[in-house]
Design goal:
Layout lengths: L2 H25 L15 H5 L5 E2 L2 E2 H19 L7 H23 L4 H19 L1 H4 L5
Helix pairs in contact: 1-3, 1-5, 3-4, 4-5
Length: 140
């Protein structure tokens, strides 16, 4: 297994774990550990805001769905990133990142767990799109 595939698997596994942690925290706020650095980092402010849900669904659940489906797509396609659903899934991931960052800017605080997830989505997607083993696949 090449380094890019291993990195993607690690990133998506950490993304799934981060999402599960955020889901648990969404329903039990006593578990959250987030350092409050100079008033700028406040996970509880972000996770308790109206931006933490979309259509009543916690973003943490949506991120768990995204990372789990991405993992399944990645494993089932054996490096074939040219399928119809992959580009759509990438776009949905980038939309989630844009929403997360916009919400944090509007609130004026950041959440380290949310930003970690944003970085995981970005890095795993970029690796799948630009890593040499994946670029060599035939386009449908």
């Amino acid at each position: 297994m090449n380094k890019a595939r291993i990195a993607i698997l690690i990133l998506l596994t950490v993304g799934i774990l981060d999402s599960v942690y955020l889901i648990i925290e969404h329903y039990d706020t006593n578990l959250l550990y987030c350092p409050n650095i100079a008033g700028f980092v406040s996970c509880s402010t972000i996770l308790g805001s109206s931006y933490a849900t979309v259509l009543g669904i916690p973003l943490a659940i949506l991120s768990l769905i995204w990372t789990t489906v991405m993992m399944l797509l990645f494993l089932s396609h054996k490096n074939k990133t040219s399928s119809f659903i992959m580009p759509i899934w990438y776009i949905l991931g980038f939309m989630g990142i844009a929403y997360s960052l916009t919400a944090q800017m509007l609130i004026g605080k950041i959440c380290i767990y949310c930003n970690l997830l944003d970085l995981i989505i970005l890095a795993s997607t970029l690796l799948m799109v630009f890593a040499k083993p994946f670029r060599q696949q035939k386009v449908l």
